[in-house]
């Protein structure tokens, strides 16, 4: 992980977003100060992976209202929920931003109801 981070951070903005590292292709994209990195097989499609990363960031932006590093640090479980709704077993399962956001909103409602039943209030 440290090696890949160093490789990605050392690249210039005009360079390609793909790196071959050992037996894996590393695909990354930078949004403001955030880097999103995915490791894929050598035979997998890099452009499709870039599109999935972009779609993920779009959903994060809609959910958090202009996602930033603090959103991902303090609400990482929401970021994982969104990723889980979009990707299953390494394959894109849901491309619709509206559908993903609707499911996440339903999860939030269910969680709020369960917390209120337990007397935990808004956690």
Question: How would you sum up this structure in a few lines?
Answer:
The protein is α+β, with helices and mostly antiparallel strands and 123 residues long. Helix content is 54%, strand content 19%.
Q: Can you walk through the features of this model?
A:
The chain is of the alpha+beta class. 54% of the residues lie in helices and 19% in strands. It is built from five helices and five strands. It has helices spanning 2-10, 46-64, 69-74, 76-86, 97-118, and strands at 18-21, 24-31, 34-40, 87-88, 91-92. Strands 1-2-3 form a three-stranded antiparallel sheet, sandwiched between helices. Strands 4-5 form a two-stranded antiparallel sheet. The two termini are 32 Å apart.
Characteristics:
alpha+beta; 123 residues; two-stranded antiparallel sheet; 19% strand; 3-stranded antiparallel β-sheet; 5 helices
Write the layout of secondary structure elements.
Elements: H1 2-10, E1 18-21, E2 24-31, E3 34-40, H2 46-64, H3 69-74, H4 76-86, E4 87-88, E5 91-92, H5 97-118
Antiparallel strand pairs: 1-2, 2-3, 4-5
Structural class: alpha+beta
Low-confidence stretches: none
Mean pLDDT over the full residue set: 91
Strand sequence of the main sheet, in spatial order?
1-2-3
Order of helices and strands: HEEEHHHEEH
Strand percentage: 15-25%
N- and C-termini, Cα separation:
32 Å
Reported for the largest beta sheet, the result is: 3 strands, antiparallel
The number of helical runs is 5
The radius of gyration is 17 Å
């Amino acid at each position: 992980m440290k090696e890949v981070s160093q490789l990605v951070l050392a690249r210039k903005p005009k360079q390609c977003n793909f790196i071959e590292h050992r037996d894996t292709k590393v695909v990354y994209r930078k949004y403001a100060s955030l880097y999103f990195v995915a490791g894929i097989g050598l035979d997998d499609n890099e452009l499709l992976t870039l599109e999935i990363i972009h779609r993920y960031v779009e959903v994060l932006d809609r959910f958090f209202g202009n996602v930033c590093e603090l959103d991902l640090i303090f609400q990482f479980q929401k970021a994982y929920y969104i990723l889980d709704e979009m990707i299953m077993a390494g394959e894109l399962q849901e491309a619709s931003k509206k559908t993903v956001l609707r499911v996440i909103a339903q999860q939030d409602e269910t969680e709020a109801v369960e917390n209120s039943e337990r007397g935990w209030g808004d956690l």
